[in-house]
């Protein structure tokens, strides 16, 4: 396939300017998972202004857009997420969040703005007579930070008509400077199980503990003993983790509470390990609570699969990155990350690739990680991402 770069170059420049404008608007008006009403409407408005066919409300606020190529039955899929986090922004920028307690601290505004820029380029390129052997499906996903929107989108036809045959997505990464790419071969991200443990005893006056059943000692025992699931139930060569992120019990100093709750997450790099850990935690919760005279209940959310990159899709996108920034700035590793992303739901259906583009401004005195209130990526990533997405989609059609 002949990629006419003379037609693409002015389109890239136009799309970058538009993407910066979109990104700053989204950044100033962040919306949390399942509440992305304005964001979803804004994406739809922009797609329609580009003349791109779209469908909205796929699941809870999910959207898709499609630019049709010669083959209208099959498509390359590109995903962007667009929910924000319950974080109060501390970055001192003109486009700072206008919503107290809400911020695009994970770069989802960058992902969405870049994909809209990519959609603009591919639509105009096609209208100008540029060759599109296949169609392109733009997947705008809500709720990635919480329950994940991928399954609901797929159930509502996001990967069909035209059928998506390959899919990819990028994430901004402050661990690398702008101009750097990072790919992971094979297993890339963990499967995630978010859980709640409820331990119930019997409330009583704090001066008379013998009259009640205190759930707090059982909860404290669980915080430490749960770690033996990893250290003693998994082989040393196997990878898994359990993190307790919240422990809540009681409201006053002289009352033994009725219940205590623990919130946490399980991560694993294969589904068998995940299932082993779920079963082990469930038994430990019931048995430990019982040992303290309490009852224990382990509730967990349905989980996404392990994210596994396809070699062929990775190598195609890597070749584009090599052309854009040079091989010395493109890192490929085999080390999986214990974070998770439900892009894995899309890529479990068809060959896919999830990769990172460096977002730290070169020479920055301090680097703030994603989810930090001062996280602020280099906006030039938008240009890099648009070029990568457009050229990768075209090469994947070959």
Helix content: 25-40%
Distance between the termini: 6 Å
Order of helices and strands: HHEEEHEHEEEEEHHEEEHEEHEHEH
- Estimated structural class: alpha/beta
Largest sheet: 8 strands, mixed
Tally of helical runs: 10
CATH class of the largest domain: Alpha Beta
CATH architecture of the largest domain: 3-Layer(aba) Sandwich
Biggest sheet, spatial arrangement of strands: 1-2-4-3-5-16-6-15
Question: What does the secondary structure layout of this molecule look like, with pairings?
Answer:
Blueprint: H1 5-28, H2 37-49, E1 53-58, E2 62-67, E3 71-81, H3 108-127, E4 134-141, H4 150-155, E5 163-177, E6 181-184, E7 186-189, E8 191-200, E9 204-205, H5 216-225, H6 227-233, E10 240-249, E11 255-256, E12 259-268, H7 271-291, E13 295-300, E14 307-309, H8 311-325, E15 330-333, H9 343-347, E16 352-360, H10 380-396
Parallel strand pairs: 3-4, 3-5, 5-16, 6-15
Antiparallel strand pairs: 1-2, 2-4, 6-16, 7-14, 8-12, 8-13, 9-11, 10-12
Helix pairs in contact: 1-3, 1-10, 3-10, 5-7, 8-10
């Amino acid at each position: 396939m002949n990629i006419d770069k003379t037609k693409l170059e002015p389109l890239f420049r136009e799309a970058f300017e538009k993407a910066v404008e979109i990104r700053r608007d989204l950044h100033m008006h962040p919306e949390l998972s399942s509440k992305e009403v304005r964001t979803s409407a804004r994406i739809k408005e922009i797609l329609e202004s580009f003349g791109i066919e779209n469908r909205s409300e796929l699941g809870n606020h999910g959207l898709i857009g499609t630019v049709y190529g010669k083959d209208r039955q099959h498509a390359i899929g590109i995903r962007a997420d667009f929910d924000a986090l319950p974080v109060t922004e501390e970055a001192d920028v003109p486009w700072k969040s206008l919503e107290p307690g809400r911020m695009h601290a994970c770069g989802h505004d960058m992902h969405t703005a870049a994909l809209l820029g990519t959609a603009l380029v591919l639509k105009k390129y096609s209208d100008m007579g540029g060759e599109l052997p296949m169609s392109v499906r733009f997947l705008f996903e809500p709720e990635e930070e919480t329950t994940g929107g991928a399954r609901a989108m797929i159930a509502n036809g996001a990967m069909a008509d035209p059928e998506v045959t390959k899919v990819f997505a990028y994430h901004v990464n402050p661990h690398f400077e702008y101009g750097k790419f990072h790919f992971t071969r094979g297993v890339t991200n963990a499967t995630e199980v978010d859980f709640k443990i409820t331990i119930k005893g019997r409330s009583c006056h704090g001066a008379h503990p013998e009259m009640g059943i205190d759930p707090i000692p059982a909860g404290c025992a669980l915080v430490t003993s749960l770690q033996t699931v990893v250290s003693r139930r998994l082989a040393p060569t196997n990878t898994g983790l359990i993190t307790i992120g919240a422990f809540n019990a009681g409201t006053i100093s002289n009352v033994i509470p009725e219940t205590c709750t623990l919130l946490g997450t399980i991560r694993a790099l294969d589904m068998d390990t995940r299932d082993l850990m779920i079963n082990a935690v469930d038994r430990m919760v019931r048995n430990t609570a019982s040992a303290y005279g309490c009852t224990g209940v382990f509730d967990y959310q349905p989980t996404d699969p392990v994210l596994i990159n396809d070699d062929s899709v990775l190598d195609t996108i890597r070749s584009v990155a090599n052309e854009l920034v040079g091989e010395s700035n493109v890192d490929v590793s085999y080390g999986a990350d214990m974070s998770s992303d439900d892009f894995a739901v899309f890529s479990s259906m068809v060959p896919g690739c999830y990769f990172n583009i460096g977002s730290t401004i070169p020479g920055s005195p301090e680097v703030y990680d994603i989810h930090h209130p001062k996280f602020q990526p280099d906006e030039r990533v938008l240009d890099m991402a648009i070029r990568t997405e457009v050229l990768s989609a075209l090469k994947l059609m070959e």
